[in-house]
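Hi team,

Filling in the usual template for the complex we talked about on Friday. All components are listed, including any nucleic acid strands or ligand strings, so the model treats them as one assembly.

SUBMITTER: L.P.
PURPOSE: interface mapping
COMPONENTS: two
RESIDUES: 940
SEQUENCES:
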Amino acid sequence: MAAKRIYLNAFEMACVGHQAPGLWRHPDDRAWRYKDLSYWTDLARLLERGRFDAIFLADVLGVYDVYEGSPDAALREATQVPMLDPVPLVSAMAGVTERLGFGVTVSLTYEQPYALARRLSTLDHLTDGRVAWNVVTSYLESAARNLGFDTQRAHDDRYDVGDEFMDVCYQLWEYSWDDDAVVRDPERGLFTDPAKVRPIGHHGRYYDVPGLFLAEPSPQRTPVIFQAGASPRGRSFAARHGEAIFINAVDRAATRRLVDDIRARIAGEGRDPESVRIFILLTAIAAETDAQARAKEEEYRSYASLDGALALYGGWSGLDLSGHDPDTPLAYIDTDAARSALEIFTRADPTRTWTPREVARYLTIGGIGPVVAGSPATVADELEAWVDETGIDGFNLAYVVAPGTFADFVELVVPELQRRGRVPAGYGPGRTLRENLVGTPTPHVRDDHPAARHRDRRRALAGEAVPSRA
Amino acid sequence: MAAKRIYLNAFEMACVGHQAPGLWRHPDDRAWRYKDLSYWTDLARLLERGRFDAIFLADVLGVYDVYEGSPDAALREATQVPMLDPVPLVSAMAGVTERLGFGVTVSLTYEQPYALARRLSTLDHLTDGRVAWNVVTSYLESAARNLGFDTQRAHDDRYDVGDEFMDVCYQLWEYSWDDDAVVRDPERGLFTDPAKVRPIGHHGRYYDVPGLFLAEPSPQRTPVIFQAGASPRGRSFAARHGEAIFINAVDRAATRRLVDDIRARIAGEGRDPESVRIFILLTAIAAETDAQARAKEEEYRSYASLDGALALYGGWSGLDLSGHDPDTPLAYIDTDAARSALEIFTRADPTRTWTPREVARYLTIGGIGPVVAGSPATVADELEAWVDETGIDGFNLAYVVAPGTFADFVELVVPELQRRGRVPAGYGPGRTLRENLVGTPTPHVRDDHPAARHRDRRRALAGEAVPSRA
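RESULT (copied from the run log):
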């Protein structure tokens, strides 16, 4: 059996401190150039040269103000603030690349599907089918308060809203316009044939969208759907919609169980569980030799910020650890939020208790994800072991210093992975992100994806044969 | 006295048929390539070579479905449908130009100020201060119905919401972050100094935005504000906020009166009326000789579409002319909407009655705006006469065929205007759009602009001197 392919995304965000709190201090870090166009176009060229599948752009619409009950630590440590909108970055990067994909995070919580569907179709047109939408439901109270909500919706409600939001988008993308609606026939005086465009007539619990879609079909129609739901309800949302799913991983045994759970949920949705690419966050620190890489990691760690890490942790978990002694174990914080927030760590090592300082140290490089430091062979060994032992498909690679961490990976690790047959030498014949990442024979969603139901409805109108469903 | 400078914007939209219904049939028209990135990057390069001040990107979020009570005519004639979102186009164009400005239309009706302010700041960062926001309150019922409203807000209410929306944005852009908030000082462990960033604490009638802004100050902070309100309430909104204002013009005498009215309103807001650039829509058909240009215009007109024009008119006016005999005068349609919709035409010639066919013929090339066809000297003469006789500052130049109309203008007319000292040979030293267009000594809003109030509040906090207001 051929070695299983490894998929690579660069994990980025239009901010300074993404997953490595404190590292902005490092003289090699150029992440503060996030607001310059050339930072992004140079990075996109680098990643395409390194045969990355996509750059994945995270986003949040609020500040991390749980720790110390204030945004001050986040500001001091540039912890995801200041931060820009990822959507406007894409077309410039598309203009300097041919094949790199773009995974863009947009929270559906603060959008209307009619407008967001058009924005994403625009990106898919401009990139010639290289766009993925990372669907998130926002988790920061600080965002909700500034965006017209008194507080966040209850967690599970957010996913109910999300299911309807996705369904509206799928109707706009897959049902409203036929493939051959745009005729551009001067003889008949017909640019678009109105008989091949239809209103979606959606009247749901949360959204009313009666009309037709404004955009003509883009290369992929539905952008590749990325998702990262972690809770049980979130996992089932991801299993329903995600074509790539990001999970938190600490150790391999727990990750194996999580991957199995997610693939079972995907199967439970009537989808082929092997058609979904599962990614974990991972940080690779590569150097010519293991010793050099370990030295580099230690040097990086000397820039770590406890405050920045706890600010990040506060935003993710809702838990303010500022009142706790940094060296006292956290197990006694006996609330639902605390248990859930600590779950990732106790899963990593159930026999151990975690203190605030240990949590912060853990998060300081690579957030909630493993860190691998070593020579090209060592890093490649580790990546292969993760993939082969856990059943994941690839990695969201975070940076310690940007773009240095990516440049090291491209120069050192990618050639090694290519030699081992894990990363293809070039991009395949299918030009869209979906063909590359999901392996579909066309740019469009698989028949077992929920968006395909609306494609079937469209095809049935035209009298076309529609695949039968199990 | 030196000849008054003439400002030039290219008037575009991410669609096929913008202001010339039917011209998609013309073999020279390439507007159907609007969904390809290279259409936009090539156009941006052309315009910068032609010393245009900006490309102005229109937008609507609905379809033109008033005519015949259906979107069919708009679809057949590609009348602003299919259409994409203009925001994602900008960064690619910015990547291939140095000085061209980008005026982007975003309706505030379907946005939250907290998110939109960040999106616009992102564009201002990525373009290095070359962005203008064309503020619109949406006018299409078809948009409202698909975006969470049962119907549109009442017209004047839309502007009340708009005033508060603008004020929230100004607070985020001008008040929340000090110029020197980002310190990036590894020694002090301070990326952003929290003492120099503050929540805006906005609790208004329509919006609650208590928090601090997510983006650090962009080169212009507040993007250049474009506005095009035409009604009395709309004009006073434009006079308050607009740094460039677009008006509909048919004849020069009426335009002179309108310009005087707008400048008086600007003065009434305590602003220097000459600091605001007033633009009219105009279509220039240029050729080597007058005869060639006239022949070109006639040839273009042979592609005109009555249906497409009446679809456009229906969307703008709310008036469905499909039930009316095309050759019967419209004066008898005695409703407020009809009177208001016809006002532009009766202003053009009060002694004449207009039939649907005449309205359509008028709109067919250049929408509601004059058409000038001639040699470079003739076109330049006409543009000079418009500027000198009406007090406007420049033109939103529409295309008949794209990009051909712009290419002709750049090749033929711009050199003539430059010879006459009306268009500068190159771009000035100030690199931002505001310095170029408004002529400010810095990239920031003038002291008499309403956004400056929040800058004053910020400066007062720092103990800086603040200009006194009349």
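MY TAKE: The first strand of chain B starts at residue 7 and ends at 13. The mean pLDDT of chain B is 92.

Thanks, L.
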